# Entry
Amino acid sequence: MRDLIYAANWKMNHSLAESRAYAARFLSLTEPRTNRSLWFFPPSVSLVATVEAFEARADIRVGAQDVHWEPKGAFTGATSIPLAQGAGAVGALVGHSERRHVFGETDAETGRKVKALLAAGLTPLLCVGEKIDERDAGRTDAVVKRQLLAGLEGVTPADLARVIIAYEPVWAIGTGRNATPSDAAAVHLGIRVALKGLGAPGRIPILYGGSVNRGNVLALLAEPDLDGVLVGGASLDPEGWAEIVGIGAGD
Ligand code: PGA
# Structure
C-alpha cells in the first residue's frame, strides 16, 4: 500500500489563536497512521503556533505557503527560507496557482525557490496546473510539463527524491469544479514520466488539488497515481479535515 499525503493549505486564514484552537481540536480527533503523512501550511504569522501545537505528532509537518529564494534583504513582505525555518517550517509550497496568477510569479522564480529550499534542507511542494483556456486548447500536458521542468531545473536526481509535486488545475481551485479522477490520473501519469526523464530515483509523491472534499476524496485516491491531496477550503475546519484525512487512509 502506498503512503498517502494529506496537505492542508490554509491560505489567508487562521490567526495565531485560531491556529492553536484548530490544532487542539484536530489532535483530539485523529491518531497517527503509519501509511499517512499530514502537512499544514498556515499563514506565516501562525507558523510558530502551528509548529508548537503539532510538535508531539511525528506524522504532522508544517510548512510555509511561500518563500523568497534570497536568504535576506530588502524584500518587503516576503518570507525568507531561514525565517520560515526559524519558525519551525520543514517545507514550503512553491508556485501555488494564486502565487503564479494573482501575484505574477514566473516559472523561473519557482525554480529558484525549489533549489533554495533543497539547499536549506527543506521540502519543496511544487504546484503545477493549467488554466481553463489552456485546457480547452488541449495544452494541459504541455503547460504542466513546462512548469514542472522550469520548477525542477538544475535539481539533481538525488534531490528530486526530496520533492513533492501537486497537480492543481487552476479552474478547479476554490470553484467547486474538479477534474474527474481519471482526468487527474492521466495528468499525474504524464508528470511521472517527465520525472523519470529527469532521473528521479524512485516514486515522487504527486498530490492532486482543486475542490477536494469529503465527497470526492475517496474516488480520487482510488487512482493509484494519486499519492494524496492538497486542500484549501475543505481543510479550514478541524472536524471536516479530520474526517477527510481518515478517508482512504483508514481512520
Ligand atoms: P481548494 O484549494 O481546495 O479550496 O480548491 C486548493 C488549493 O488551492 O491548494
